[in-house]
Structures are given as C-alpha cells and as structure tokens.
Amino acid sequence: MSEMVLVTFDWVPEIPRGYVRDLRVRWALEEANLPYRIETVPFKSRNAEHFSSQPFGQVPWLRDGEISLFESGAIMLHVAERSEILMPQHAEERAGVINWLFAALNSVEMATLPYSIFKFNGDEEQTAGRQALDAFLQSRLQHMEAYLSRRTWLVDTFSIADILMADVLRLVARFDGLAEYPLCRAYVERATTRPAFAKVHADQLAHFAAAD
Amino acid sequence: MSEMVLVTFDWVPEIPRGYVRDLRVRWALEEANLPYRIETVPFKSRNAEHFSSQPFGQVPWLRDGEISLFESGAIMLHVAERSEILMPQHAEERAGVINWLFAALNSVEMATLPYSIFKFNGDEEQTAGRQALDAFLQSRLQHMEAYLSRRTWLVDTFSIADILMADVLRLVARFDGLAEYPLCRAYVERATTRPAFAKVHADQLAHFAAAD
Fold first, then answer.
1. Residues in chain B within 8 Å Cβ distance of A122
2. Residue A144: which H helix or E strand, with range?
3. A26-57, pLDDT tens digit by residue?
4. For residue A2, is pLDDT > 90?
5. Which residue range(s) make up the domain with A97?
6. What value of ipTM does the predicted structure carry?
7. For chain A, which end, N or C, has fewer CB atoms within 10 Å of the first or last residue's CB respectively?
8. Within this chain, do residues A128 and A203 fall inside the same structural domain, yes or no?
9. Does an H or E element contain A68, and which?
10. Cβ neighbours of A151 in B, within 8 Å
11. How many helices and strands (H and E) does chain B possess?
12. Is residue A6 a contact partner of residue A38, using CB atoms and an 8 Å limit?
C-alpha cells in the first residue's frame, strides 16, 4: 500500500494551533491505520503551486498517487475507500455515514462558523442579522442534542462522520458555546478522548512548535 | 430501475420559492434522466416522522428503496452512483468532482450563508464580526473568479459539483453580491440557462403555487 502525503502549513500563529484542519485528516489516517507522511507549504507566502493544489489557498490537501484531494470531506471519503474501519459496509449504514459527513460540513459547520468568527473578533453586537445567525446555530444544536440523546456515535460505530462532527463542535466548545448542550459536550468528550485524537493533537502542536 | 421519491414541503411562503433545496435534487435527477416522484410533508407542523427522516426538520430528502438521504451533497453522490451522466468515471476527474462538491457546500456556502442572512434581514451594520465574515466571502469569491477564468465547468464536463456550486452562487447573485465577479456571474448564467434548470425551477414554483 502506497504511503499518502498530507500537506499542511510549515507554521501558523499560536491561536489556530490544535485546530488547523490537517488535524481532521491525521485523525482519520491514525484511526484507519493508514501510513502517511507530512509535507509542508509556506504559511506566509502562498504561491501558484499552492493554489493549483488548493484553490482557496488553504490547507490541508492529501496526495495518494495521482489523486489529490483538497476538501476535508473528500479526504474522509477517500480514507473510507482505503480502509473499512471508518465506514460500515452495509448500504443503509453507509448512506447514514455519508448523510452525517455532509451534515457536519454543511448543516452544522455553516451554522457554527459565524459564531466562531464573532467570538474571535470579540464582537457582541446584537444586530438583526447576528440574532438570526445565532437562532440558526441554536436550532442546529438543539436538533443535535435531540439526535445524540439516543446514540453514542452518529451511526452505530465511530466513523468519518464523527471525526468531522466532533471537530466542528469542538470549536464551538472552545468558546463555551455548548454550555446548554450537555449531550453535545459529552459527544465531543467521547470523541476527543480517543487515543488517536490525543496523538494527532499532540503531533500538530509539536509540528508547529518545531517551526517557531 | 425503481422510481426514487423526493420529499419536499407541501407549501412555503413566497420569498424562498425558487430557492428551496429540493430544486438541487430535481435538477440533478432531470440532468441524469432518472425517474422520480414528489411527496410532501407539512411546512407548518413538522412531526416526529419528519425529524426521523431529516434530523434538522428541513427538506428535501430522497428515498431510493431502503436508502434515505437527507443532505443535498449525499443525494448528489447517490445520483452520480445511479447515472454516469453527472460524474466522470476516470479516477482523477472523479476526485476533482468530489473535491468541488464539498467545496460548494463547505468552502463556499459557509461563506455565502451569513451574507444571505444579513441581506434577508436588511442588516447593514458594519461590526467587527460582520467585516470579518464579509472579508471571508470576498476572498472565496476572488478565488472562484480566478479558478473560473480557465474553465467552463468546475471539472471538464457539467457535473453534480456544478449543480451545487451554481445553486449556492445563485443566492449571492439574488442580492447583487456577484456584481464585482463577472466570471462567477457568467458561470451561474451558463448553469441556469440549461433546459433542466428551467424545467425544475418552473416545477418548483408550480408545486408551491398549487398549494396557495
């Protein structure tokens, strides 16, 4: 089996460390026991080669032979094609995992991202749009809370969908945004106390610290 | 080939008509020449059965035999498994389509959604968070503009990724948010002048009008 190459930044400032999205990919690769190595691109000067691999100038991307994947959702599906560990094989359960993979990135992260940006900017102004965005987030979290009342993981066993959902909710928890959602908090806790998460979180911190 | 069932609301208010997300699915099914029929659930009272099929209380979802899909990205992948028309078969191009499918729903829609919500609410207050969200959107649109300077569609031929990206950008165009992005506007125009779009747009308007 060929070794995959995960590309991330050579360095990032303190604040995003532990949250850079290569973590999602490292996590999936560790859970799936797939071999990979890390390569880097400059954080401070993003050149045309970077944009040819990642059209938005971000990280990560994953190379596997001739295949190059630059969206974390696409990478998760690829990892699930390479290993059965993170994706059930039965058609109905597989459909469930794919539903929840997209739910993490669209239904949920689309609601959590504005919250994080307001918090990062220390912005507490309650304008009409801000209130609508907040109502949208609370609605999503309420539905997640209801869904998680009956489940340990999103679909039966721990999957690629849980990696993305836990990583999305973790950033809300960072700003105490899950205070009223104990089941969401417990879910994030369950996911992030897995040995693979602890390893890749430490790996990412060490990677960026080594560049200081 | 069994007929798929697309579930949407029985009625919605005027404003979202022409933009309800069942349109994305109708569009893909028409482009792929796959048979389907429409079923409805009440817009005004969303019951437990609705939430068991769509955990966020939204529409659409798609049933195909025992499989039920409630995220538009998951539905697109399923349509692409049922028909080769909207997904190239070569591995590298297929990876490209899957990258762009996720890019539409995560990298791009995550930036366009707050913009739409501010506009829907007539909110023009330039708070720090609002400015950061706007800078995020402008950055994404600039990268899309650069990418589209070299292409007719996101990956070679028209695909499921174009359906989602065009539908996402269409809502920005509705509020004149693509004024400075002529290539994005031309892309939306190319996509939405396809006969399949015209048909399903008319179908959705007629569906909701019939319930008034």
1. 128
2. helix A128-148
3. 999 999 999 999 999 999 999 999 999 999 99
4. no
5. 91-194
6. 0.97
7. C
8. no
9. strand A67-69
10. none
11. 9, 4
12. yes
Provide the token pair at A169. Answer: 């909710």
B155 and B200 inside one domain: no
pTM of the model: 0.98
Rounded to whole angstroms, what are the CA distances from A164 to A13, A101, A160, A173?
23, 7, 7, 14
Residue A205 has pLDDT above 70, yes or no: yes
Of A66, A107, A113, the CB nearest to B56: A107
Q: In Å, how far is B33's CA from the nearest CA of chain A?
A: 22
Domain shared by A139 and A106, yes or no: yes
Instruction: Say if the Cβ atoms of A114 and B133 lie within 8 Å.
Output: yes
Of B107, B120, B129, the CB nearest to A71: B107
Strand partners, B68: B63
Number of Cβ pairs < 8 A linking chain A and chain B:
148
Nearest residue to B5 via CA among B51, B70, B52, B55: B70
Q: Are residues A102 and A50 in the same domain?
A: no
**How many other CB atoms are found less than 10 A from the CB of residue B1?**
8
Written as one letter, the residue type at A54 is: Q
> Is B147–A55 a contact, with Cβ atoms under 8 angstroms apart?
yes
* Å between B177 CA and nearest CA of chain A: 16
B106/A101 touch (CB, cutoff 8 Å), yes or no: no
- Rounded to 5 degrees, φ, ψ at B206 are -65, -40
Which residues, given as ranges, of chain B have pLDDT below 70?
1
